[in-house]
């Protein structure tokens, strides 16, 4: 039986000043092993049997209309005139991306779901068209773009027409519900670029052992910002996107460019020790460190560094421990290719 492997990277969004704009695809991959076997029996209403290992295995639902990956795939299939998976679709999910930690697990699940639909429904979508569907579901483009395209990306969403707004801005649960009306994703919702990245720069993820759902972490943010705060971030964003691609990365420039006034200061209420960690770890205190920020909506801390990885991670873990928080850490690097589909 032919097998298809869909691989989607984790991602770290924002990277300091790039709230809802920047993302890095990381080499920690959500993997879907897919087979379609007409002789296989399944009790699933939509013909998809799911098995799952790794992060989330205790809680993630395994019926196709409730699991985020297959729910997304069913939505995309339905939007394209197909009401169920082909008989019988079997997927095995291997997930090393921790859930609710700011490493883009939901973005990866949505990207995987859209690529799954593209594959089983033979829809023939390009990555750009797949992005349209992804961006209807996860409505900030930073994780989705980094996971789909790979590397260090910047993206924005275009202004939608009134009709498109009515289609897209429905509550997500209603849009993905199995009997909701089929809709076509507006074309070219997102625009992205991929920046240069000096491969000597690695990403250290220090991952606290508690979850911060992204929806809750967005609720603590203000709805309006002052002009000085917006300018503060824009200036740093402009410098950071070029500074990490330089032949000789400048630690002080990168460190200063990763400062933020739009999301991190507000998220400290959800993450014990956040302010102290972000201000206490510098290129001066830790040789090799280039910059430090909250990864996505948190609680993971992302450090960019060229060496001294273990020392940097251990010291942050000790600092979190003072707050009663235990962590694990991973040394990662940009996943340059983004999401891939391989037919074996
Ligand atoms: N592999 C997966 N399979 C099914 N659902 C997933 C998967 N990964 C993430 N999710 C869903 O996404 C939620 C986490 O999303 P979110 O709060 O945005 O955090 P993150 O920062 O990890 O993206 C999980 O609670 C779960 O509902
Ligand atoms: N820009 C978003 C990014 C959320 O990323 P996640 O990995 O935490 O889902 C935000 O900061 O809310």
Automatic annotation (TrEMBL):
Looking up PROSITE patterns in the UniProt record yields: GHMP_KINASES_ATP
Show the InterPro entries listed in the entry: GHMP_kinase_C_dom, GHMP_kinase_C_sf, GHMP_kinase_N_dom, GHMP_knse_ATP-bd_CS, Homoserine_kinase, Ribosomal_Su5_D2-typ_SF, Ribsml_uS5_D2-typ_fold_subgr
Reaction catalysed by this enzyme: L-homoserine + ATP = O-phospho-L-homoserine + ADP + H(+)
According to UniProt, this protein's pathway is: Amino-acid biosynthesis; L-threonine biosynthesis; L-threonine from L-aspartate: step 4/5
GO biological processes: threonine biosynthetic process
**What EC identifiers does the entry list?**
2.7.1.39
EC top class named in words: transferase
- What molecular functions are annotated in GO for this chain? ATP binding; homoserine kinase activity
GHMP kinase N-terminal domain span: 67-151
Q: Which Pfam families match?
A: GHMP_kinases_C, GHMP_kinases_N
Give every GHMP kinase C-terminal domain span.
258-311
Q: What keywords does the record list, in alphabetical order?
A: Amino-acid biosynthesis, ATP-binding, Kinase, Nucleotide-binding, Threonine biosynthesis, Transferase
What domain of life does the UniProt record list for this protein's source? Eukaryota
Q: Briefly state the protein's biological role.
A: Commits homoserine to the threonine biosynthesis pathway by catalyzing its O-phosphorylation.
Record-stated family:
Belongs to the GHMP kinase family. Homoserine kinase subfamily.
Q: What is this protein called?
A: Homoserine kinase
Q: What is the lineage of its organism?
A: Eukaryota, Fungi, Dikarya, Ascomycota, Saccharomycotina
């Amino acid at each position: 039986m032919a097998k298809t492997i869909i691989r989607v990277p984790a991602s770290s969004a924002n990277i300091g000043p790039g709230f809802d704009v920047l993302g890095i695809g990381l080499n920690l991959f959500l993997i879907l092993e897919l087979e379609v076997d007409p002789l296989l029996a399944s009790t699933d209403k939509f013909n998809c049997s799911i098995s799952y290992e790794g992060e989330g295995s205790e809680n993630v639902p395994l019926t196709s209309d409730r699991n985020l990956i297959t729910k997304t795939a069913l939505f995309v299939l339905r939007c394209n005139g197909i009401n169920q998976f082909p008989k019988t679709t079997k997927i095995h999910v291997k997930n090393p991306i921790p859930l609710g930690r700011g490493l883009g697990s939901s973005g990866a699940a949505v990207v995987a779901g859209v690529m799954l639909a593209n594959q089983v429904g033979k829809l023939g979508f390009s990555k750009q068209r797949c992005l349209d569907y992804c961006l209807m579901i996860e409505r900030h483009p930073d994780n989705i773009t980094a996971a789909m395209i790979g590397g260090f990306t910047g993206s924005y969403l275009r202004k939608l027409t009134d009709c498109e707004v009515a289609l897209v801005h429905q509550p997500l649960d209603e849009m993905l519900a199995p009997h909701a009306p089929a809709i076509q994703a507006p074309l070219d919702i997102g625009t992205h670029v991929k920046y240069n990245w000096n491969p000597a720069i690695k990403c250290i993820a220090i991952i606290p052992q508690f979850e911060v759902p992204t929806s809750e972490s967005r609720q603590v943010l203000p709805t309006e910002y002052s002009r000085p705060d917006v300018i503060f971030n824009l200036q740093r964003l402009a410098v950071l996107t070029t500074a990490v691609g330089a032949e000789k990365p400048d630690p002080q420039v990168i460190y200063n460019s990763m400062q933020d006034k739009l999301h991190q200061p507000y998220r400290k209420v959800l993450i014990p020790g956040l302010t102290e960690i972000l201000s206490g770890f510098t290129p001066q205190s830790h040789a090799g460190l280039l910059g430090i920020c909250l990864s996505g909506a948190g609680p993971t801390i992302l450090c960019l560094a060229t060496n001294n990885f273990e020392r940097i991670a251990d010291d942050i873990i000790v600092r979190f421990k003072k707050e009663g928080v235990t962590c694990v850490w991973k040394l990662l690097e940009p996943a340059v290719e983004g999401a891939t589909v391989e037919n074996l």
